[in-house]
């Protein structure tokens, strides 16, 4: 296919039957590694697909997350999250480093020992209910879709009774369809009003949760503005949810649909960690990172990006780049070298990565131990993924055991 034909493609790319644009990624890597797409706003963007180039864009400070100047490229025409001056993801270093220092305390790898029993307790509770109800179960509605928000609310200290509210609000945050604009704005307003009220309550009765660390950084150390504090709590609740939920559901499906993979995991607990990494490599539910703009001309492997251009990386394309991964289309939890880019790289590298890895590991291990005979209760071709959104989550995962 000629480069001009690929250039006409709208973004987000249309996912194939398993929710990833594998064929388009393959053709772009081979034929036009710096081809264009049309963003929902109508603005053109380079779609960067080679592993080496994606890593470069994420690391190189000449690719900026400041899309807030007049005439900057836009993902959508309407107001969206890229316009928010208080959000961590919209800043470049050195300003961005201030946010990271605050968040780093709360997400240091040493926190894992504290999180593990919380995550295990929530997983056990959800799986108890699945077991008690008996087969078939929908592992999206009953497990993967509920676990990350439950964990995040427990860590942030949000009352259990409000989990469903968060779940519903965050479900519409990544919509790019103009028809969903009103709903997106309403969800955002309600979510922020809730958070402001919640923070006020915490100030009156502080606890020892993640949110109390952030409130201290704001109130006693003056390291955050009030708007930045609210946005940071919101980023943790949102960042921690949809991605982890989608990766988990899609990962369980991959384990069940590729012959022998479930049995490998079930029979060998030592494969839990490698299985998590392979799920992360293979089942990225979106293009993986936010839009950038080039602040000057930068040479990538095929050719240069001019200054002022919108640049969208494709993490799923990078994760199947044959220049880096042997037999990249094979899902294999015994894969050893696995330098996937699913948590990004550089300044914005996902601070939640240790928590997401922990949730995926506890969830997969517990499922394999408690439901060794787990199997799909639907034809893989009947499964559906969400569209009209930057994230393509699996909508249902019917299983039996
Ligand atoms: C499988 C699950 C997850 C995936 C695939 C994922 C992926 C990513 C990626 C690729 C980025 C960088 C985006 C960019 O550079 O444009 C990022 C940033 C971020 N993630 Fe995650 N994430 C996951 C889970 C989480 C969790 C559990 C949390 C919170 C507890 C979280 C919070 C954040 C935040 C706050 C940022 C912004 C960091 C910054 O701008 O410096 N994520 N994530």
Structure explained in plain terms:
This protein is an alpha+beta fold and 401 residues long. The protein has one domain: Cytochrome P450 (Cytochrome p450, Orthogonal Bundle), CATH 1.10.630.10. Helices cover 46% and strands 7% of the residues. It contains 16 helices and ten strands. The chain has helices at 3-7, 22-31, 51-59, 95-106, 112-133, 140-144, 147-156, 163-171, 181-204, 210-219, 226-239, 242-257, 261-267, 272-282, 315-318, 353-370; strands at residues 36-38, 44-48, 63-64, 137-138, 292-294, 298-299, 304-305, 310-313, 375-376, 398-400. The strands form three sheets. The chain has a five-stranded mixed β-sheet. Strand 6 and strand 7 form a beta hairpin. It is globular. The termini are far apart. The model has no long low-confidence stretch (mean pLDDT 91).
Level of helix content?
40-55%
Distance between the termini: 44 Å
CATH class: Mainly Alpha
The value of Rg in angstroms is 21 Å
Shape: globular
Largest beta sheet: what is the strand line-up?
1-2-8-5-3
The count of strands amounts to 10
Key traits:
alpha+beta, 5-stranded mixed beta sheet, 7% strand, binds protoporphyrin IX containing FE, Cytochrome p450, globular, single chain, 3-stranded antiparallel beta sheet, 401 residues
Short recap of the structure:
This protein has 16 helices and ten strands.
Which helices and strands occur, and which strands form pairs?
Layout: H1 3-7, H2 22-31, E1 36-38, E2 44-48, H3 51-59, E3 63-64, H4 95-106, H5 112-133, E4 137-138, H6 140-144, H7 147-156, H8 163-171, H9 181-204, H10 210-219, H11 226-239, H12 242-257, H13 261-267, H14 272-282, E5 292-294, E6 298-299, E7 304-305, E8 310-313, H15 315-318, H16 353-370, E9 375-376, E10 398-400
Parallel strand pairs: 2-8
Antiparallel strand pairs: 1-2, 3-5, 4-10, 5-8, 6-7, 9-10
This protein binds protoporphyrin IX containing FE (HEM).
Protoporphyrin IX containing FE (HEM) binds at residues 58, 88-89, 100, 152, 235-236, 239-240, 243-244, 247, 288-290, 342-344, 348, 350-352, 355-356.
């Amino acid at each position: 296919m000629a480069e001009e034909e690929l250039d006409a493609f709208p973004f987000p790319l249309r996912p194939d039957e398993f929710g990833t644009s594998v064929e388009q990624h393959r053709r772009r890597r081979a034929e036009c590694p710096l081809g264009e797409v049309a963003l929902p706003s109508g603005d053109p963007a380079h779609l960067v697909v080679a592993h080496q180039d994606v890593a470069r864009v994420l690391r190189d400070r000449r690719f900026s997350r400041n899309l807030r100047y007049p005439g900057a490229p836009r993902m959508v025409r309407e107001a969206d999250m890229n316009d928010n001056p208080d959000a961590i993801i919209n800043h470049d270093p050195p300003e961005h480093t201030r946010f990271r220092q605050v968040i780093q305390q709360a997400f240091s790898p040493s926190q894992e020992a504290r999180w593990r029993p919380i995550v295990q307790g929530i997983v056990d509770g959800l799986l108890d209910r699945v077991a008690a109800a008996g087969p078939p179960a929908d592992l999206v509605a009953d497990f993967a879709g509920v676990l990350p928000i439950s964990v995040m609310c427990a860590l942030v200290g949000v009352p259990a009774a409000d989990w469903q509210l968060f779940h519903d609000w965050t479900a519409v945050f990544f919509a790019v369809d103009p028809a969903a604009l009103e709903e997106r704005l309403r969800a955002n307003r309600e979510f922020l009003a809730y958070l402001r009220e919640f923070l006020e309550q915490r100030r009156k009765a502080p606890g020892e949760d993640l949110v109390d660390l952030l409130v201290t950084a704001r109130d006693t150390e003056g390291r955050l503005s009030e708007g930045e504090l609210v946005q940071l709590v919101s980023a943790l609740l949102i960042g921690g949810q949809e991605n982890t939920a989608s990766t988990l559901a899609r990962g369980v499906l991959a384990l069940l649909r590729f012959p022998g993979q479930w049995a490998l995991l079930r029979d060998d607990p030592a494969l839990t960690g490698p299985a998590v990494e392979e799920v992360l490599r293979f089942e990225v539910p979106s293009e993986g990172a936010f839009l950038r703009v080039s602040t000057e001309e930068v040479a990538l492997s095929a050719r240069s990006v001019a200054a002022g251009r919108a640049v969208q990386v494709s993490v799923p394309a990078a994760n199947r780049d044959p220049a880096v991964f042997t037999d990249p289309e094979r899902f294999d939890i015994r894969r050893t070298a696995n330098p996937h880019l699913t948590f990004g790289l550089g300044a914005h590298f996902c601070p939640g990565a240790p928590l997401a890895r922990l949730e995926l590991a506890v969830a997969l291990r517990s499922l394999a131990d408690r439901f060794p005979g787990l199997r799909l209760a639907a034809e893989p071709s009947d499964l559906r993924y969400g569209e009209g959104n930057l994230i393509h989550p699996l909508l249902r995962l019917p299983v039996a055991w």
